[in-house]
Design a protein that fits this description.
The protein is mainly alpha-helical. It is built from six helices and no strands.
């Protein structure tokens, strides 16, 4: 009985399936060894995802970006805003609404911001509500409430750039 088992085990060595399996294993070991040995070189898989929109890639030394207040950048910005206003105007006309005065709208949009220290009324109201809530907490804790208008002004001053 023992001799029959050993004969069967050694008899399967010559089938084509055995050669295919051992061949595939040896081939995969060779490929794995080559991959390990060539891993340190420039790998094409390391470049996947890299490109013009990649954050990891530094800008080349020869590429200069104009500051936003440069004359060329301002002209480009004006042209882009003009194109968007033209498209908006075309949509308004298609809907049967009165057309925009593109030049007046362009002047309004590109006008420098006013240097006034007035804040948006909604922002002032929201800050006032926060100060009132803070005062209510102070009263519940047994502390004296603070002046609401002074606290609103101080909070708005913190928000200014």
């Amino acid at each position: 009985m023992h001799a029959a088992i050993s004969v069967v085990a050694f008899d399967t060595g010559g089938t084509p399936l055995t050669f295919v399996v051992f061949g595939a294993v040896i081939f995969s070991l060779i490929i794995s060894l080559l991959m390990v040995l060539t891993r340190g070189t420039d790998n094409m898989y390391d470049h996947i995802g890299a490109g013009g929109f990649s954050r990891e890639e530094d800008r080349p030394a020869g590429v200069l970006v104009a500051p936003p207040d440069a004359p060329g950048a301002q002209a480009e910005r004006e042209e882009e805003v003009r194109q968007m206003l033209g498209a908006r105007n075309a949509r308004l006309v298609r809907r049967g609404e009165p057309p925009l005065d593109i030049e007046a709208e362009l002047a309004r949009l590109l006008a420098p911001p006013a240097d006034s220290h007035e804040h948006d009324p909604g922002l002032v109201e929201e800050v006032r509500q926060l100060v009132l809530a803070r005062n209510e907490r102070r009263v519940r804790q047994g502390l004296e409430p603070q002046d609401v208008e002074a606290q609103v002004a101080a909070t708005l001053a913190e928000l200014d750039p």
